[in-house]
Amino acid sequence: MQEYTLNDLFSMFIEKKINRSKFEGLVFIYLVNNKTRLMSKYWRNDEYEEYISWFYPRLSKAIDTYKETGSSFEAYLSNIVRTASKEYRMRIAINEVTEQSAWNSQIPEFFTREESPAYLADKPNYEISQLVSQIKGRKNPKQLLALILKCYYYISDEFLDKIAAHTGLDKKILKDMIEKLHIMRERHEDAIYRMKERIYGQFYRCIAYEHRLSFLAENTTAFLKLKRRLEKARIRLEKMRNRVFKVRTCPSNREIAGVIGITKGSVDASLHKLKKRLNKMNEKKDIKN
User: Fold this and answer.
1) How far is 48 from 34, CA to CA, in rounded Å?
2) How many CB atoms lie within 10 A of CB 10?
3) What is the 3-state secondary structure (H, E, C) of the chain?
4) Which of 31, 74, 138, 185 has an alpha carbon within 20 to 30 A of 44's alpha carbon?
5) Which of 191, 166, 172 is nearest to 248 (CA)?
6) From the CA atom positions of the chain, what is the Rg in Å?
7) Do residues 226 and 216 make contact, with C-beta atoms less than 8 angstroms apart?
8) Is pLDDT above 50 for 166?
């Protein structure tokens, strides 16, 4: 089979011996089969094939841009291919740095951590466990039930198994109540989930910027530009964290009352008593300190 040069293919296209689709297809095949003519010999075959596949969507625009004013089509396209390869290499390098940074940040969590890392922006609820320890053993299961449902968003199945007996309810009934709250507040919970996902992405973006900075010489234009980008990314991350901290995760007293099957006033009274008890606990701590 005769092997055409890029100039031959372009002439055939101009003379309308082949249509546009056929021309682009033949040019793509030529690029795939002529790595050594167009690129450095140090490119691996699989790496080069991935690059040409990435470049293909730009081929049509490159053909439209070409003007027959000096350089041949082959010289023009070869230059475009080599120039675009620098951008491709840079993107690959950035992606590798980003991926490596993300994995490095997660390794300690996989092997040495059990609690949620700080950037997850989950609200630690130490007051819940303190109040539960105060309520258990007293004859006020209604207060404990109201507290559990108020904090349903943070209640794990494991914790629920431990506390269910103190509510005077069957464990399955208690789980059904919590599940009902999840269903009632599904849209709200989805919004919180999406906010946290964006926080994860912003967190890893900051890590990637930090890692990329370590490869750049200080006080260069690229270094200073990336440093400013990192500073803005950190500010945005902090704002995102503050925003998710302010999001209300607990259900309303009316929602709790509807799930239990009692009046809203009963829930109000139970939670008010718990709040007063919490205030007393905090006052005692302040006196000791």
Assistant:
1) 10
2) 21
3) CCCCCHHHHHHHHHCCCCCHHHHHHHHHHHHHHCHHHHCCCCCCHHHHHHHHHHHHHHHHHHHHHCCCCCCCHHHHHHHHHHHHHHHHHHHHHHHHHHHHHHHHHHHHHHHHCCCCCHHHCCCCCHHHHHHHHHHCCCCCHHHHHHHHHHCHHHCCHHHHHHHHHHHCCCHHHHHHHHHHHHHHCHHHHHHHHHHHHHHHHHHHHHHHHHHHHCCCCCCCHHHHHHHHHHHHHHHHHHHHHHHHHCCCCCCCHHHHHHHHCCCHHHHHHHHHHHHHHHHHHHHHHHHHC
4) 74
5) 191
6) 32
7) yes
8) yes
Instruction: State what percent of residues in the chain have pLDDT above 70.
Output: 80
Q: How far apart are CA 146 and CA 141, in angstroms?
A: 9
- The rounded distance, in Å, linking the Cα atoms of 145 and 168 is 9
Residues in the chain, how many? 289
pLDDT in tens, 175-194: 899 899 999 999 888 988 88
Q: Mean pLDDT score of the chain, rounded to an integer?
A: 79
Dihedral angle, C-alpha 122, 127, 132, 138, nearest 10 °: -160
Judge whether 148 and 175 are in contact, CB under 8 Å: no
First-to-last C-alpha distance (Å) of the chain: 90
What's the confidence (pLDDT) of residue 106?
53
Q: Tell me how far apart the alpha carbons of residues 175 and 158 are, in angstroms, rounded to a whole number.
A: 11
- Cβ neighbours of 288 (radius 10 Å): 6
Of 7, 1, 34, 36, nearest to 23 by C-alpha is 7
Place of tokens 């992405």: 201
Task: Yes or no: say if 185 and 152 are a contact pair by the CB < 8 Å rule.
Answer: no
- Structure-token pair, residue 55: 């470049």
